[in-house]
Amino acid sequence: MERTHPVTAAMYFLSVILITAIVQSPVFMAEALVCSAVFAFLLNGKTAARTLFVMLPMALLAAVINLLFSNRGITVLAKLPSGNSITLETLIFSLFTGAMTISLVMWFIGLNKCMTSDKTVYLLGKALPSLALLLSMTLRSVPMFARRAKQAAAAQRFVGNDIYEGGLRSRIRSGVHVLSVAVTDTLEHSAYTARSMKYRGYGTAKRTAYSIFRFAPSDFIIMSVTVICTTAIIILFASGKAYYLYYPEFILPLTAFDISADIFWLILCVTPVAAELYSRFKRRERNGTL
Fold first, then answer.
1. Quick one: 42 and 166 in the same domain?
2. Residue 199 to residues 122, 182, 186, 202, 203, Cα–Cα distance (Å)
3. What is the first-listed, main subcellular location in coarse terms (predicted)?
4. Structurally, how many domains does the chain consist of?
5. Can you tell me the distance from the alpha carbon of 250 to that of 248, in angstroms, rounded to the nearest whole number?
6. Tell me: the pLDDT tens digits for 25-55?
7. CB-based contact 242:261 (threshold 8 Å)
8. Is residue 60 in a domain?
9. Are residues 138 and 277 both part of a single domain?
């Protein structure tokens, strides 16, 4: 998916993120959680592991809070001293809402890895050049600021301003100093960039565009799968043939329409994992041949 065409990647991630956020079917959430986590680990294992380490306790805490303060549902599991009831419906809804949140974060890890700044500029450069430039500079400034902050912290450590040692007051003062240096350096670099673009005539005439992206057969396959599966899921749920209920009673029918929607969603979620594994296999095959 990292080498896919920008239009293909944008269409795919827009589809899976919107469906994950809107269609909160338990089966959908389970499939999205597994597939998005596998895809995120394939792209960036360290980031995915750190994200899961942070998100899992937060999702469980949110589920516990929802259980304590929400008593919707008719299947009572236990009674609290406060008088609220813990219901099966609230438990299921809380767990799968947490799964939805983690899935969305995992999809965004894949989006951040696959939709680079040059792809964003390619998508928006002709129609909205100013917005494309703003997004490109914003996406570039975040890792640049983090890098400059690390450099400033390393430099300040040699002059006695260590943010990792000393008392709390001293560390806060050192951290503020490091942050000030990083912000000043970043703003100065942004001013140089703006001045350079002005001298080169940016915005004074119609821009020409050069693109290195080409629509490959794999892009056609991924886009076709995205369009077919997304359309099928929208039709099945919009027509009411596939449905689910959390309240007042948890209902998850397993009709042919519901199973079809689950299969379409599974195919859509597995697509980037299959594309990434196939790309790695072909890369190893070429390296082995060479």
1. no
2. 23, 26, 20, 8, 11
3. membrane
4. 2
5. 7
6. 888 999 999 999 999 999 888 888 888 888 8
7. yes
8. yes
9. no
The position carrying tokens 């296999």 is: 281
* Residue 173 CA to its chain's centroid (Å): 34
The answer for 201, left when phi > 0, alpha when psi is -120 to 50, beta otherwise, is left
> What angle separates helix 256-289 from helix 6-22, to the nearest 10 degrees?
150
Q: Which residues lie below 8 Å from residue 150, measured CB to CB, with a gap of 6+? A: none
Amino acid, res. 18: L
pTM of the model: 0.74
Q: How far apart are the C-alpha atoms of 65 and 81, rounded to whole Å?
A: 15
* Per-residue pLDDT tens over the stretch 135-159: 667 766 777 777 888 888 888 777 7
Nearest Cα to Cα of residue 43 among 199, 162, 170, 51: 51
Based on the domain organization, do 190 and 263 belong to the same domain?
no
Of 280, 283, 238, nearest to 257 by C-alpha is 238
- 240 conformational bin, left if phi > 0, alpha if psi -120 to 50, beta if neither: left
Distance in angstroms (rounded) separating the CA atoms of residues 165 and 28: 47
Say which residue the tokens 């430039």 belong to: 133
> In the chain, where do the E strands start and end?
76-79, 85-87
Q: Structure tokens of 51? A: 């994200």
